Amino acid sequence: MDVLRPPVININGRIYRRNIVKEEHYEEEDFSYVGPSESKDLAEGESCDSHFIEQTDKGYHCAIDVPSVLYKYIIGKKGETRRRLEFDTKTSISIPKPGIEGQIVITGAQKAAVSSAVTRVEVLVESFRKKQPFTHFLSFPLNDSKVQDGFQTFKDEVLRQFSQDHGVEESIFQNPVKLHLTIGTLALLNDTEVRKACEHLQECQTFVRDIAEGKPLPLEVTGIEYMNDDPAMVDVLYAKVNVIDGTDRLQMIADRMVEYFVSVGLMVREWDRVKLHGTVMNTLFRKDSTDLGGAGKQTTSEREAFDARNILKKFGNYRFGEFELNTVQLSQRYSTDCTGYYSSAGSISFS
User: Fold this and answer.
1) Residues 6+ apart with CB under 8 A from 349
2) For the segment 31-75, what is each residue's pLDDT rounded down to a tens digit?
3) Cβ(20)–Cβ(13) below 8 Å
4) Is 13 helix (H, G, I), strand (E, B) or coil?
5) Are strands 14-22 and 27-34 parallel, antiparallel or unpaired?
6) HSE (CB half, 13 Å, CA atoms) of 322?
7) pLDDT, tens digit, for every residue of 244-290?
8) Backbone angles phi, psi at 153, to 5 degrees
9) Of 66, 111, 112, 220, whose CB neighbour count within 10 A is largest?
């Protein structure tokens, strides 16, 4: 770690220095508050802006909503993290049993001590939340029947003409009923967070309809591109999607939605602009031929690239189809609804 430029984390406008301690099953992170110009000891007690600290006959207590999958990071290996937090802040930290959704309750004789413990728990939660795999994503569905038919023709022709090219085989093609554009990903760790995301999605309805002018957007799915530098060693091949009238309204909707979900703390910004792409081939879909069940998928480190040079030359301007897009969905990862598309936790429309 660069001691002159230590890693930091921003929680509600407050900056914390992150110190990493390796543990057996995960990295336990210790945090120190860093003010605008100098360090500040959390044990001194700073204001706790985001949680209400209630006074009781025995002192003070504060309840924090924390998804159960994150309890272990507050407890630590053999309870060490919780004990250290309690010792440092002179508080008691009560955590529900594993797997039971509830609240972490912090009690102490001094309000400043409870505030300090709340802040440290909040920072731990925020840090380890970012390490969780995403569970949901905002999507523009592309599974219109015309686009599906165009995709199926593309797949059949690629396999007929180029199945001898390195790495090209049927299992790396997208499922046509799950064709989509990903706007952004979210890690929603319990039902409460899913409901919160749905509420925020509904709050996007007004500006989405303003941009779309209250009508479905006419789109064309035309052309293919690849994501890495070498067309002979490709992991992802995607279809390009444009609004037929030549405007950038689809891009504007995607960017505004990411901006909004980042502002409410449900999404992490990865790029300045959303890269809208409809995946048609992906080596992460590849079935492992050594897997007797035939359904194994490769990890990122194991994935085998494919040679896309002939595919790009033949189908670089391929027309998958045109359709009218009218929805944004909060889709659940690894799920399927009655149509074959991803199960939807919520949606909004353009019209």
Assistant:
1) 205, 209, 326, 327
2) 433 333 333 443 333 445 567 899 999 899 999 999 999 999 999
3) no
4) coil
5) antiparallel
6) 8
7) 999 999 999 999 999 999 999 899 888 889 999 999 999 999 986 44
8) -65, -45
9) 66
